Amino acid sequence: MSKVFPRIGRRRALQGAAAGFVAFGLLLWWLLPLGEAPPRGTITFSTGTLRGVYQEYGERLRTELAKDMPGLKVKLVQSAGSYENVQRVATGRADFTIAAADAVETYELNDGKGAGRLRGVARLYDDYVQLVVPRDSGISSVAQLRHKRVAIGLPNSGVRLIANRVLRAAGIDPAKDITPVSDGIDTGPDQLRRGQIDAFFWSGGLPTKGLLDLADKFSYTFVPIEGSLVTKLHTESEAALYYRATNMPESAYPSIQAGTTVPTIAVSNVLMTRKDMDPRLTEWVTRTVIKSRDDIGNHVHSAQLVDLRTAIYTDPLPLQEGARRYYRSVKP
């Protein structure tokens, strides 16, 4: 058989190739908004402590952003947690971050520098307050933490905000009635295992890797935080209105919970930036956050809860213009 196309065959082949290039071009136009090249440059993303969900989510999101915006460099910076994250973005020391809604509200109520510039990008997932004690401790209520050594989180962390409020609502002065210890999820589990503390507070997505790792080598349990305590919290602080009474599902830490739920507090997390951030960049970041939910969720379980229908509810922050553009573009 001849390897030379007949004249009509070559013409059709060229026409087919041209049509293929046009189709490919249309596909690129669809994937890249307005046919524009992806944003470039460098941004700083403030995460959280090692072994915490903020840190892991930040690492996974950086990977996804690199796929969509190969010319964008994302610098991850560890932090104490929510409150420090809010401070960093508000004052320009970071460009994007995750923070719990109560920490954002607290910063605004405290008239923190740059608070008026803060804007929301997406509601992500809920943090759950996890109060951990050794299984044989005999501690079964928050009130029984009196005179105990309790890790209440790092300074400027969202954990510390919540821990102090919960303790006060239970009639415990964090400065006088306990021995407060500044441990987070990076050090708290080992401190508990070694008997250096009697309990520690953690607020994070479910499950948190630091607690999964602890379950492999130490027997612990969760102290319930009852709904009546949450109701009392609501009367004591405007920021506490972002807390809701819920149950930690039995599937969070199966080997620890043995099929039982745990009454506790949940608070939503918000991906945030500033009003002056480039709207086009923010629009691209928002798109990546939504479309990468499943890929990130394969590694960070709580990220599976990111949902387009609820992502726009970034209270107490208004949406950043770029995020607003994205949600409008995908509105049915």
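Second entry:
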Amino acid sequence: MTFADEVKNAVTPRAALLVIGVLALQLLFIASYIGALHNPKPTDVPFGVVAPQQVSARLVTELENLPGGPLDPRAVTDAATARRQILDREIDGALIVNPRGTTDAVLVASGGGTVLATSLTKIIKEVESTQHRTARAVDVAPASKQDFDGLSSFYLAVGWCVGGYLCASILAISAGSRPANRQRAAIRTAVMALYSIAGGIGGAIIVGPILDALPGSFWALSGLGALTVFAVGMTTLALQALTGIVGIGLAVLIVVIAGNPSAGGAFPLPMLPDFWRAIGPALPPGASTWTARSIAYFRGNAVTGPLLVLSAWAVVGTVITLLMAMRRKPEAADATDAPPAGTATGGSTPA
């Protein structure tokens, strides 16, 4: 057999396509992470202005017209309302003008991201300096001292997501990416649910009692973790049911390549380019990161939308997985999952 024949036998068309797919994922990974994170700058950040009526409109217009459009300012009636809106995650900061002096306050929330809080303070101080006024930062939702740059929520969400698609991938690699029948699909779903509960509780224990990195309700974080792991795991199982082993790559594309850089972790959403800012809240890492921060620092506010996003991924993934299993005939062989010719199967049926 010639060398060319050896290569032809060793490199099948399927293997070549899989290698090309991996190369595409690699390049997309580089493009997504660098594209999202190489030049962070605030854009249209929801920002409140509390000032006497005669200067409020002028200040809002001035902040709205700053070069680059970093702020999306709006007048707020009083300081208490501004604080409430920050804790409700309706705005990310506010300027409180002192009518009796020249020192104003900038309300920020480092629990939502230290980088954003620092950027807002810097912007307002520069504006104030042109008017011979000064500003001091007041952190109304400070990040924990054990939560450097407010990143623990993001890393926690990433860990949950990784666990979800790795568990689903192992189920596929060990016993066929497409379940043989609906009973086996139900078994995989049950395994995924149990794994998700364990992963959610485990992550909450590590980030809470062990490392003291995040405050907030232990059980709320555990529930969030279970939902995150299950959503990602069932999405991965659904993609495998639809496309075979290729589904693992599609899960990586959705969760790792698109989801992680757009999650608002390293840089909060208002500091990301438009594309990543748009897709982040609709993907599991972004929804989970937002909810974890809300639980830890914002009294559990503004979590309905993100929880619905995670629930949608979980429900759709479960439905597709079960429906695809019901459509398959038990005796049907899947070309993408079948063992190589001549390999003993031991008489077992893939799970």
